Amino acid sequence: MIVRHAAPDDAEAMSGLLNRIIAIGGTTAHQVPKSALQVRQDYIDGPDCVTSVVAAEAGKILGWQAVGWWQGDAHIGTFVEPGIQARGIGAALFAQTLIAARRAGLRTLHASIRHDNVPGLAYYARIGFRDHATDPGFALKDGTTVGRVHRRLDL
């Protein structure tokens, strides 16, 4: 597996992975599929992007992680191909993200995770993020209340 910075040409594969996760539901607050152009603008080289990395093997993107500005803070998002989580992909992505975040001068990373996303909560705790706020009323577009946990990592 190779972890490298995301390139504009990765946007199609990254959006495909994200959209599969959205379709399954339960582990992302995203509810509307994103086009490759949206992924590129939001996560690769748009004005609010800080860093974006992909994990690839045999030319296939297995996961990706991005840091971007949202509501005045640097927020991280991690997406790994369904069915292959908990195999070290997230840790490998984070190792590169951490280097890039520090190079960019960031002092804190934020993660907002659905309260019902047990694997996501475990992942961010494992890499050092700590709770700093909750939003128990966070609801999906259909009105289902799932809550949200806000975590941060001081760099």
Structural descriptors:
single chain; 155 residues; alpha+beta; Aminopeptidase; 4-stranded antiparallel sheet; 3-stranded antiparallel sheet; acyltransferase; Bact_Acetyltransf; GNAT family N-acetyltransferase; Acyl_CoA_acyltransferase
Structure description:
With 155 residues, this protein is of the alpha+beta class. The protein has a single domain, classed as Gcn5-related N-acetyltransferase (GNAT) (Aminopeptidase, 3-Layer(aba) Sandwich), CATH 3.40.630. 30% of the residues lie in helices and 34% in strands. It has 4 helices and 7 strands, in the order E-H-H-E-E-E-H-E-H-E-E. The protein has a 4-stranded antiparallel sheet with strand order 1-2-3-4, sandwiched between helices. A 3-stranded antiparallel sheet has the order 5-7-6, covered by helices on one side. Strand 2 and strand 3 form a beta hairpin. The two termini are 26 Å apart.
SSE blueprint and pairings:
Blueprint: E1 2-5, H1 11-24, H2 36-44, E2 49-57, E3 60-70, E4 73-80, H3 89-103, E5 108-114, H4 118-126, E6 130-135, E7 148-154
Helix pairs in contact: 1-2
Q: What's the short version?
A:
The chain has 155 residues and is α+β, with helices and mostly antiparallel strands. It has helices at 11-24, 36-44, 89-103, 118-126; strands at residues 2-5, 49-57, 60-70, 73-80, 108-114, 130-135, 148-154. The protein has a single domain (2-154), classed as Aminopeptidase, CATH 3.40.630.30.
Radius of gyration: 15 Å
Would you tell me the overall average pLDDT? 92
Distance between the termini: 26 Å
Which strand order do you get reading across the main beta sheet? 1-2-3-4
The number of domains: 1
Shape: globular
CATH architecture assignment name: 3-Layer(aba) Sandwich
Instruction: Give the number of DSSP strands.
Output: 7
Counting H and I runs of at least 4 residues, what is the number of helices?
Answer: 4
The name of the CATH topology is Aminopeptidase
SS strand fraction: 25-35%
